[in-house]
Amino acid sequence: MKLITAIIQPDKLDEVKEALIKEDITRLTVSRVTGHGQKIEEDLYRGQEVGMDLSPKVRLEIACNDQFVDIICNTIINAARHDEGKLGDGKIFITSLEECIRIRTGQKGGEAI
User: Fold this and answer.
1) Rounded to the nearest 5°, which phi and psi values hold at 66?
2) What domains are defined for the chain?
3) What's this model's pTM, rounded to 2 decimal places?
C-alpha cells in the first residue's frame, strides 16, 4: 500500500480530479495549503533582502494499493502540468503506507482502501 501526496497549482485541481475520475480513482483527500518550493531570486525592498512569500497550493492525498501507483502518478502529471511545464507545477511524493483501517467495518490493509 502507498500514500501518494501531490502538491499542485490550484487552477489545475478540476482538471486533475476529472482525469482521476476517468481512471476510476475516486477516493482522494484535498486540502488548501500554502508553500514555497524552488528558490527564486529574492527582491530588495528599502535595501533589505525580502524572501518570497508562500504561494497557494492544493494538496491531494490518495491511499492506494501498489498496482495503482503508476496510473495515479501519470494521470496527475499529465493533468497538472501547464503546457510544456512551468516552475511551480508541483511535486508528487510516494510513501509506504504501513496500515489502513476502515473505521466503519474494522477492515484492514488493502481491503480497507
Assistant:
1) -55, -35
2) 2-111 (3.30.70.120)
3) 0.85
